[in-house]
Amino acid sequence: xxxxxxxxxxxxxxxxxxxxxxxxxxxxxxxxxxxxxxxxxxxxxxxxxxxxxxxxxxxxxxxxxxxxxxxxxxxxxxxxxxxxxxxxxxxxxxxxxxxxxxxxxxxxxxxxxxxxxxxxxxxxxxxxxxxxxxxxxxxxxxxxxxxxxxxxxxxxxxxxxxxxxxxxxxxxxxxxxxxxxxxxxxxxxxxxxxxxxxxxxxxxxxxxxxxxxxxxxxxxxxxxxxxxxxxxxxxxxxxxxxxxxxxxxxxxxxxxxxxxxxxxxxxxxxxxxxxxxxxxxxxxxxxxxxxxxxxxxxxxxxxxxxxxxxxxxxxxxxxxxxxxxxxxxxxxxxxxxxxxxxxxxxxxxxxxxxxxxxxxxxxxxxxxxxxxxxxxxxxxxxxxxxxxxxxxxxxxxxxxxxxxxxxxxxxxxxxxxxxxxxxxxxxxxxxxxxxxxxxxxxxxxxxxxxxxxxxxxxxxxxxxxxxxxxxxxxxxxxxxxxxxxxxxxxxxxxxxxxxxxxxxxxxxxxxxxxxxx
Length: 517
Hints:
Domain RCC1-like: 86-505
Structural class: mainly beta
Region (Disordered): 1-47, 158-190
Organism: Chaetomidium leptoderma
GO molecular function: guanyl-nucleotide exchange factor activity
Largest sheet: 5 strands, antiparallel
Mean pLDDT: 84
Distance between the termini: 51 Å
Helix content: under 10%
Strand order of the largest sheet: 8-4-3-34-33
RCC repeats: 84-139, 140-218, 219-271, 272-328, 329-392
CATH architecture of the domain at 18-28 and 35-59 and 69-315 and 323-329 and 439-508: 7 Propeller
CATH topology of the domain at 18-28 and 35-59 and 69-315 and 323-329 and 439-508: Methylamine Dehydrogenase, Chain H
Strand content: 35-45%
Number of strands: 34
Radius of gyration: 21 Å
C-alpha cells in the first residue's frame, strides 16, 4: 500500500459526510465540513456505530462455554426488557432521523422525541450507520430507516407516490426544513425477514456505512447491504454485490457480540476469538493478504478468525480501525492509523519519535500507551479518533485534533505527544489522554463528533456541529459540554449513538414496561 501523509483524510471513513449517492464519500478537509444541499447526505458509525450496551461476553455462564457445539443452544440472552424513548438531532437529509415524511429534510437542532422509536414501539436496542439506523424491538422485530441506496434497510423502499409536503406542524425554530423525503425510507419499518427461520430470536443489531447485521440467540449472524471499496465498487460477499434482504453469514458461529466500522465487521465468539470480514485495504481486518491470491479484496469478504487473538472479552471499532480487549485487560489495536487513532507508537514520550507511527497497523498490536490506565471497559472511535472508558469512570481520547473531536483543550496538551501539520498546527494526539471533568458511563463517536452519557445520566457532546449533530450553539465545540435544552431537562439518558452528521439519545420508557422487566 502506498504511504499516506498523516494528516490527509482517507475516503469513506466512518460517519463521513457525502452526497447520497455515496459516489464521492470523503471526510471533512481539515475537519471543516461544508454544508451541502442535496437530496441526502451520506456517510459511518458510528458506530457508527455504537448500540445499547449488550451483556458483555465476560458475564456468560461458564456452563455455556463448555457445552458441545450446537446450532440450537442459546448463547445470547435477549436485551433487557425495558423499552426506550429515543431522541434525535442533527442532519435529516436522507431520513436518517427516522421522523417520517412529515418532517422535511434538513437539520434538527435540539433533541426531539421520535414517536416511531419510543413508547409502545418497544425498542430495546439501537445502532447507527452513516445515514441509516436499525433498532431491535421487544417483540423480536428489526426496524430500519434512512438511506437505502445499497440495501442497508433490508427491505423494499421503492415509492412512486406524490411527495408529501410538510404541513408545518413539525417545523419549529430548531429545524432547517429543506425538502421532501421518501416515506418508506424516513419511517422506521420492519425488515423483510421472510428468508429467516420463523423461530429465530435476535439479540443485537449493528450498522455499518451501507450494511446492517443482526445477531441471534444461537450465535449466528445475518446481514444485508454492501461494503464499498476505495474505488467505489460494491461487494457484500465473494458472489454478491448488494444483498437486499437478510442472509445468513457463513463461516462464523457461536458469536456473542458484533460491531461495525464503516466497511468492516467484527464478531466476538463465546470462546474468546475474533472474526472479521469486509473491506480490509486499511488493515482493519487484522490479517495479512497474500499477493498470490488473485482477488485478495474479495478474500476479505469471508469471515476469518484473527489468528493472533485469543481470550478476548470485548471488541470495538472506529471507521477503519479495530480494537480487542483481552481477559487480562490488555488492549490490542489494528487498522488505519494515519492520525494515531490506534494509539500504537514507538518510544512514547520521546520528542525524536514524534513521527514514529505506522499509517497502517496490519495485525493486532498491543496498545502500550493504554498500559498503566485502569482497565478499559468500552472502546470505540470515529474516522480518525478514539474514545475509551475506564472502569473507574475516566474518559480517554486520542487521534485527530481537527474539529475538536477529542474533547481536549489542545493548547494544554504535552507537545511531545502532539504531531503538527505542514503549517505547524496541531494535527493529532498520539497517546490516550484523560478528558478532565468528564465521567462517562457510555460513549459514542462518528466522523468528527462525540457524545458521552455521564454517570449522572446527562449527555455531554463535543466536536463538529455544522448540522447541529451535537445539540450545541457553536459550529465547533472544543470541550465536552452538557446539552442543555428543555426537551431533555427531566430525562435520565442511558445511551447515545452517532451517525455521519446526526446523533441519537435514549432513556428508559417507564410507561411501557414489559412484564419481564
